[in-house]
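Known limitations

Files may contain more than one protein. Parsers should not assume a single record per file. Below, a two-record file is shown to illustrate correct handling: read the sequence, read the token line, then continue until end of file.
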Amino acid sequence: MTPRSGLSLFELLISLALLALLAAGLAGALDLSIRVHDRSQTNPELQQDLALRNRLRNWIASAVPPSHLAQYPVGLEGTETSLAFTTRNTKGFAPNAAALRIELSAGPEALDITFIEILDSGETLGTHNATLDGFKGVRFSYFSPVDSVWRDAWKTTEGLPQAVRALRLSNPFFVDLARF
């Protein structure tokens, strides 16, 4: 054996440090892939909740203002436990309708939704009802652009609220459904 064969102590320490950096990088990549996989396997109940929120945001954001002249009811009105509005955004849901009237009613155990497809003439094309379990204790409130406060009720004669909020009492958070 020659004095130069093998690794010196310094070379060994450098190689161990590089190996530790490589192991830390692999552990981080593995952790990230596990988190991405878990996130992609979302609970089906959460998927329904997220899909409904997204659809309601789009519909409320495109609510027909009361100043719009039409043969069907326009505007947005609501109470603490109900919300009704008309949207012309019918894509993907009611392709043959000119407008869609959506009525939400919050019960103690579920959220009842009625969809009314309306033609330009004001005639009803069809009505669909859905009851969504898991939406217990939903309360609506409406943000007034005039006095900058949240209200428990809204009338069509007041125009459109700046925002609509749905607060679920079973969860400690709220969701701003739409901002006009």
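...continuing to the second record:
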Amino acid sequence: MEDFKSVKFVEIIDSENGELNGLRARVIDVEEHKFGIDLRIVVEKTGEKMWISSESVYQLEESLV
């Protein structure tokens, strides 16, 4: 979980093909539970806020943002 507390941006992985789908999101909260880690994100393109599993995102390096 500590790894995700310092992450500011992620790219969302397409659940159907496992590839990056081009949507970037800003991480606004991190929550750990018995099934794993969830991230509260804001999708840059749409402004939509949602919870997403940490397994469904790729962490972006600070230099790539």
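Parsers that stop after the first record will miss the second one. For reference, the second record is described as follows. The longest strand covers residues 20-33.
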